[in-house]
Amino acid sequence: MCEEYVEKPLYLLIADWVMAEKRWVSAKEIAKHFNMDHCKAINTVSYILAEVGEINCETKTIPNQLEGRGCQCQRLVRVTHIDPQLYARLGHSAQEKMVSKSPRMSAVPPSELNREQKWQMMLSKSMRR
């Protein structure tokens, strides 16, 4: 019997990992850990900070030691709390992934989903394949 795991959205996987690290983390570290482009890691962190109210984060900015590049700063993030209601809203338990026996989701989001649900769907790993 083969069961498919419906994975958490990428932003939630990243937030869980950063919170488990219990330290300041850069987008460069996130990109390396999740094997993604640095730009995508920056965009995902920006999404978490701006759009996901259930994830409490702290940020700090440190200057890079690069000469001749103007004011280039590096933003570090630390996740302090993830509201358990976020997992409930997404259909996950707080400690484990949800198991689904249904077929894979289609590549095009259904029209009956609202804007937020479409974003969550597009950010999930299942849509990156």
From TrEMBL:
InterPro entries: Tscrpt_reg_CaiF/GrlA (IPR020357), WH-like_DNA-bd_sf (IPR036388). It holds the Pfam family CaiF_GrlA. Transmembrane segments: none annotated. It comes from the Bacteria. One of its GO terms (biological process) is DNA-templated transcription. NCBIfam families: PRK11476.1. This is Carnitine metabolism transcriptional regulator CaiF.
